[in-house]
Predict the structure.
Amino acid sequence: MSLIISDEILQSARMTEEGLRREIAVLLFQKEKLTFGQASDLSRMAQVDFMHLLGSRRIPMHYDVEEFERDLETLERLDKIKKT
């Protein structure tokens, strides 16, 4: 699905497409509708840059048990690859 925002709307909002993407991504992340990775992708920003954007707005990172467990699995896989 694609969402098309007219140039008139962008002009009325005094925003670029890039700026609107970032605002939507931040809002959806803040409302816990998107994960950090999804919001970073939507904003088309590198994760570290998106993290800095959130920090500049004092928006805390959401990090639940499920994400922690996925990170642990990733680290274990990387450790096994490194040892081979």
